[in-house]
Write a structure and sequence with these properties.
Blueprint lengths: L1 E7 L4 H4 L3 H6 L8 E7 L3 H10 L4 E4 L3 E7 L2 H9 L4 E3 L2 E3 L5 E4 L3 E4 L4 E7 L1 H11 L6 E5 L1
Antiparallel strand pairs: 1-9, 1-10, 2-4, 2-7, 3-4, 5-6, 7-8, 8-9
Length: 145
């Protein structure tokens, strides 16, 4: 089993492949898997969309963030993929709409997708992730253990 810590260091990557983050996350998005995420309170529109498609979602609020836990279903995954887009905010791009996102035991991203932590990857998952990363290798700092 392999672990990868991926840190975005080239914020011009969106010109090469704006969908790199989505391509990685698609490897882990499967119905029936538990997820946790946090998003800014200003993003209530995202929360409303998730709660429409979610079953028995647990929602909690903090000072600046909303936390959501639940189980992925097909509709949530479909909506997530359909609405994916990179948000360009000057010097830094946002690849994820979520401040943090955890999917199952293998996937965790932070800082709107600019950091990705993958744990206990199978050979197949590692190969799939490297297919996305290798053409963009100079855009990341990657730690493998």
């Amino acid at each position: 089993m392999t672990n990868l810590d991926i840190f975005l260091i080239d914020f011009e990557i969106y010109k090469k492949n704006p969908n790199w983050w989505l391509e990685i996350i698609e490897i882990f998005l499967k119905p029936g898997i538990k997820f946790k995420l946090s998003l800014e309170k200003e993003q209530k529109n995202i929360l409303q969309k998730l709660t429409v498609n979610g079953n028995d979602l647990k929602i909690s609020y903090d000072k600046n963030l909303i936390y959501l836990e639940g189980i992925l279903n097909r509709e949530m995954i479909k909506d997530f993929k359909a609405s994916y887009k990179v948000v360009n905010c000057g010097d830094i791009d946002y690849y994820s709409r979520f401040f943090t996102l955890e999917i199952g035991k293998n996937y965790f991203s932070a800082h709107y997708g600019r950091e990705v932590y993958l744990t206990s990857l199978t050979e197949v998952e590692l190969g799939d992730v490297l297919k996305v990363l290798n053409p963009l290798r100079e855009s990341f700092k990657i730690d493998i253990s």
